[in-house]
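# step 3/5: fold
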Amino acid sequence: MAAIGELIIYFIYFILGLSFVTFLILSLTSKKTKKPFMIISIFFGLLMIIFKSCQYKGYINDQKEQVGIYYLTKYPNCNSCYIELKEDMTYVIEKSGGIIKKGTWHHESGGDYWITYLDGENYQLGSGDFSYTDYKLKY
């Protein structure tokens, strides 16, 4: 089902881009009425920019929903460690106030999955050493 959602987004980009290019070509090749085609072309270009902007805001909001503290259960040599995901896309692993490890994180999601990657795509929050049972989200 998530693939259909992705295809719909690509289809919207395709239609907006095709409309933009078509009306731009018509405005450049038309001998008599260039102005209406140029206005329509600019309209579709703005729609494409607005659509991309809305998608980016959704992506940023998805990222912010992950910000918080996660209490790790399987981190090596540490029974009371926790990982704090920060808003600047960095994380720290702490044990009793001391920082053990720092790094970067990002979040990916689709219709049927969501993954928080640590250190590029080397680790995933919630699996292996980064398993957790409890968490406190900031937002």
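# step 4/5: annotate
DSSP finds two helices and seven strands in the chain.
# step 5/5: archive (pending)
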